[in-house]
Design a protein that fits this description.
Elements (H helix, E strand, L loop, with lengths): L14 H11 L3 E5 H18 L4 E5 L6 H9 L3 E4 L2 H9 L7 E3 L6 H10 L3 E4 L2 H9 L1 H7 L2 E7 L21 E2 L4 H12 L3 E5 L10 H21 L5 E3 L17 H16 L7 E4 L3 H4 L3 E15 L3 E8 L8 H5 L5 E3 L8 E7 L9 E7 L7 E5 L19 E5 L5 E5 L4 H5 L10
Parallel strand pairs: 1-17, 2-3, 2-10, 3-4, 4-5, 5-6, 6-7, 6-8, 8-9, 9-10, 12-14
Antiparallel strand pairs: 1-11, 11-12, 11-16, 13-16, 14-15, 17-18
Bound molecules: pyridoxal-5'-phosphate (PLP).
């Protein structure tokens, strides 16, 4: 399926904003624009509800679990998808009621499940037979807390995306396969145990610029729901087709619009349910497509170095004050980004440079970036589309402090929503046993 060309809707900082933010909070710095984020959710909802009036969006908090952002997502009508006790605790801190959260995980710990159920989580997505038996043992508490269960299915589709973010194929650790009969066995077991199962879920992959696999995933789980009604009289009232829609990291990435995608997926699901009498609530749980384009990372240039390089003659490294520990995606997935100089250019010529970080790795953070040839120490650069899977995937590698996150408020003012790590925090977990010689 080919996507219609989209405009560049990515948030970017003006030079003045970049300077003020760098001065106020230092660099590297994640920046998220509140108005942009709210608008993305509203646009997604508009497209979804036009196709499916009961449609529900759940914000996949793994994309960015900064508490203030979870609060915004909830205010805009999203429920919150959490993949761990930590993400659930962040949602609770944001003031999201547990009943508006749902918990995922292919190997949830019993303690995580216990915590989630005790909090009264709205929904838990079942991923394996061990969990089903555990819920059988916890049935009284699950019923008392009103927790609903959903079965995650692996529909057996191969999306066009990076292998590490592809999850819907048959050979996956996530969920129950439809093709080998595990999905049906799982449903039968939850029915035998009398568990409060309401429907099915799938998520086929992430950064999907061609959403064909997502659409077939949705269609396959809807057909499965139809079969389960025919075979077992099971009434599906909830179907979640996951997240996955891609975003514009560079101008080569042209995602389908939310509205077009929602129309296509709702049409496929509706057709698969025709004549069954089933009319489930449809849900989606996007992360990246709601928050990625609302965020940028601001870095300051330090060293600029030109070295001999095989095949290309020379390579110029423009080293910034962050890198692998605040954005592991280039190293993990070979991800490409759009990198822009925010300081005014003193030169009209641009040449390709490698923007590199400061970690002890031979990583090429952003390769073949066109920057003015006189880029120099002290310049500020912004990397677009870093609102998703950057702050949430940040580490302390090399004992660097994870960056702060600033929010640009709707009135243009700035608020810090997550501060930089402190040195005290960085060393707080250390224990040197007495008598260590
Ligand atoms: C189960 C599940 N739901 C939702 C998402 C969010 O996907 P995306 O950020 O691509 O929309 C993911 C991402 O990995 C996921 O695994």
């Amino acid at each position: 399926m080919t996507a219609a060309p989209l405009q560049d809707t990515r948030f970017r900082l003006s030079e003045e904003q970049a300077r003020e933010l760098a001065q106020a909070y230092g660099t590297p710095l994640y920046v998220v624009d509140e108005g942009h984020f709210r608008q993305r959710i509203q646009q997604y909802y508009e497209g979804f509800r036009a196709a499916s009036p009961k449609g529900e969006l759940s914000f996949a908090s793994k994309a960015n679990s900064t508490v203030a952002l979870l609060k915004i997502a909830y205010q805009e009508g999203c429920s919150i998808d959490v993949a761990s006790e930590g993400e659930l605790r962040a949602a609770l801190m944001a003031g999201v009621p547990a009943s508006a959260c749902h918990l995922h995980g292919n190997n949830k710990q019993e303690s995580e499940i216990q915590f989630a159920v005790e909090q009264g989580i709205g929904m838990i997505v079942l991923d394996n037979f061990e969990e089903i038996e555990l819920f059988g043992r916890m049935k009284a508490l699950v019923e008392e807390k009103g927790v609903k269960l959903v079965i995650r299915l692996a529909p057996g589709v191969d999306p066009v995306t990076h292998a590490k973010i592809s999850t819907g194929q048959a050979d996956t650790k996530f969920g129950f396969n439809i093709v080998d009969g595990s999905g049906e066995k799982a449903l039968k077991r939850t029915m035998e145990l009398g568990l409060p199962t309401i429907g099915f879920h799938c998520h086929v992959g992430s950064q999907l610029l061609d959403p064909e696999a997502q659409i077939s995933g949705g269609e396959l789980i809807a057909k499965f729901a139809a079969d389960m009604k025919a075979n077992h009289g099971f009434e599906t009232t909830y179907l979640n087709v996951g997240g996955g829609l891609g975003v514009m990291y560079t101008e080569k990435d042209v995602p389908m619009s939310h509205a077009e995608y929602c129309k296509a997926i709702v049409a496929a699901v509706t057709k698969a349910l025709e004549g069954t009498g089933l009319d489930p609530k449809l849900a989606q749980e996007p992360g990246r497509s709601l928050i990625a384009e609302s965020g940028v990372t601001l870095y300051r240039v330090g060293v600029v170095k030109t070295v001999p390089a095989k095949e290309r003659g020379t390579r110029t490294y423009v080293c910034v004050d962050g890198g692998l520990s605040d954005n592991p995606r280039p190293a993990l997935y070979g991800s490409k980004y759009t990198v822009e100089l925010v300081s005014p250019s003193r030169s009209a010529d641009a040449s390709p440079v490698t923007v590199s970080g400061k970690h002890c790795e031979t990583d090429k953070l952003f390769e073949d970036i066109q920057l003015p040839s006189d880029v120099q120490a002290g310049d500020l650069i912004q990397v677009l589309c870093t609102g998703a899977y950057n702050s949430s995937m940040a580490s302390n590698y090399n004992r660097y402090q994870r960056p702060a996150t600033a929010l640009i408020r709707k009135d243009g003012s700035f608020s810090l929503v997550q501060r930089r790590d402190t040195w005290e925090e960085m060393l707080a977990r250390e224990i040197v046993p007495e008598g260590l010689v």
